User: Which sequence fits this backbone?
């Protein structure tokens, strides 16, 4: 296999732009997904009336439909009822919608791992439910959830490749376009892989570090 | 008994899990400054009884009066009651995400909204008393079981409760650490803290308790001054119980 290195240099700016876009959309989407996930899991944890049923439906729908279909709905479906959103916004909403349900699951598992005796101790010293949540349950649940969170972040980052389906020029779509125009398949795919690695390797290393740190820091009880 | 008004009165307290009766009409009066040891075989309802006293269990009948005010009604603010009735558990659950000092300050600062420097001073004094002043900034994982349990006691004391409930606080400790925890409780007894203590440490109960209640199958089977209970138990069940423990 030979590579046309000059070609790679020529298209580098395209990949740089695409990489930044991928990173930007993923970061925003994941951040919102974490917020949505936390809210949902707290609603589930306290079995809040009505809301917890709504959340349940959301979780089922979000986890049992492909992201591409969710994006199609946002990008092609919504305009039919007069709501037109930019591709990037659709991408962020889609990623939040899908990711929120995964994050909710990770965080719920974390909350359920907080022992009953921790909660009773909190009550016995007079904490309110909200204070229990803030000082006892959430910090501990967060530590328990870090591995799940990490896996979800990586999953969601890779899921951004589906954005190519709604004409967002992220890494995968950029590669597809360049291949279509120049037929330099090897070069384009090499750059695609390198692009994802540039994002995912540091992220994976960071998450491994975080996991170890959190595990070390807690639970000597 | 002396003419003192009891600080805590329990009348006909009944607790069921489904059909199963766990507490079958408990009556008890606790005078201020008294130390009561609660003894009895496993499963007789000792923990459940203590848990009812600070609202961790819902009760199905009877009444609990704290300073003559009933706690068994809808308007009871258990969060306020729990500041007056402290409880320490067998599992010494310090919050692993907080340092020793943060564990102790949490309730005084966030629940009682007291002044930080005042509470810190009190916390340090209490830590001093249990011999752990130098561990204030450690995390629980850095402490031994006995140290954690002493901190858990300090955390409860720093809320300034009027009554303390201890549920087998030495049961999960290595033998060499039991002593350091019991010493702290004995100290409290000397200072006049009102306490209900569930324990299997008979020597300790004999030493610090004014009164013993012996429970069996959800009832108070025998109630007597400590000295009398240990030297001359009146009921056969209590005699058996003490024999089994070779006491
Ligand atoms: N959540 C529960 N649901 C059903 N039964 C329970 C529950 N908690 C306790 N019990 C039962 O209530 C009874 C009293 O339990 P409790 O924990 O108060 O006993 P105990 O005297 O503290 O025993 P031990 O010395 O072993 O701690 C036991 O028979 C126990 O099985
Ligand atoms: Mg018990």
Assistant:
């Amino acid at each position: 296999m030979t590579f046309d290195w000059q070609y790679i240099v020529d298209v580098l700016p395209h990949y740089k732009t695409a990489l930044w876009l991928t990173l930007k959309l993923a970061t925003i989407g994941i951040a919102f997904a974490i917020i949505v996930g936390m809210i949902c899991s707290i609603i589930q944890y306290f079995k809040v009336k009505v809301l917890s049923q709504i959340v349940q439906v959301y979780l089922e729908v979000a986890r049992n439909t492909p992201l591409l279909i969710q994006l199609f709905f946002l990008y092609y479906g919504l305009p039919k009822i007069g709501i037109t959103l930019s591709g990037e916004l659709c991408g962020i909403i889609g990623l939040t919608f899908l990711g929120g349900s995964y994050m909710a699951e990770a965080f719920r598992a974390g909350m359920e791992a907080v022992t009953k005796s921790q909660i009773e101790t909190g009550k016995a010293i007079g904490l309110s439910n909200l204070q229990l949540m803030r000082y006892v349950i959430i910090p501990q649940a967060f530590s328990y959830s870090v591995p799940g969170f990490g896996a979800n972040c990586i999953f969601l980052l890779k899921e951004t490749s589906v954005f190519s389906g709604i004409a967002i020029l992220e890494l995968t779509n950029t590669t597809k376009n360049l291949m279509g125009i120049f037929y330099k398949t090897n070069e384009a795919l090499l750059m695609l892989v390198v692009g994802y690695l540039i994002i995912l390797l540091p992220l994976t290393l960071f998450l491994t570090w975080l996991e170890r740190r959190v595990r070390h820091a807690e639970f000597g009880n | 008994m002396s003419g003192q008004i009891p600080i805590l009165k329990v009348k006909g307290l009944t607790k069921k899990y489904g059909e199963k009766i766990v507490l079958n009409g408990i009556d008890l009066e606790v005078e201020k400054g008294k130390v009561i040891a609660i003894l009895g075989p496993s499963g007789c309802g000792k923990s459940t009884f203590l848990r009812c006293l600070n609202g961790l269990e819902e009760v199905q009948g009877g009444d609990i009066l704290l300073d003559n005010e009933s706690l068994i009604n809808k308007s009871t603010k258990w969060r306020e009651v729990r500041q007056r009735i402290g409880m320490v558990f067998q599992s010494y659950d310090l919050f692993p995400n907080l340092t020793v000092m943060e564990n102790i300050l949490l309730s005084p600062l966030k629940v009682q909204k007291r002044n930080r420097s005042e509470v810190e001073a009190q916390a340090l004094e209490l830590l001093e008393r249990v011999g752990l002043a130098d561990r204030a900034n450690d995390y629980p994982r850095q402490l031994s079981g006995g140290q954690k349990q002493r901190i858990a006691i300090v955390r409860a004391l720093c809320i300034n409760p009027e009554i303390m409930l201890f549920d087998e606080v030495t049961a999960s400790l290595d033998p060499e650490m039991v002593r350091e925890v019991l010493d702290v409780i004995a100290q409290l007894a000397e200072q006049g803290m009102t306490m209900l203590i569930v324990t299997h440490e008979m020597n300790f109960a004999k030493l610090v308790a004014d009164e013993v209640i012996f429970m069996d199958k959800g009832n108070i089977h025998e109630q007597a001054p400590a000295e009398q209970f240990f030297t001359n138990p009146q009921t056969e069940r209590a005699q058996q119980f003490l024999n089994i423990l070779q006491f």
User: Anything to note?
Assistant: DSSP finds nine helices and ten strands in chain B. Chain B has a mean pLDDT of 94. Residues 6-245 of chain B form a domain with the Rossmann fold fold (CATH 3.40.50.300).
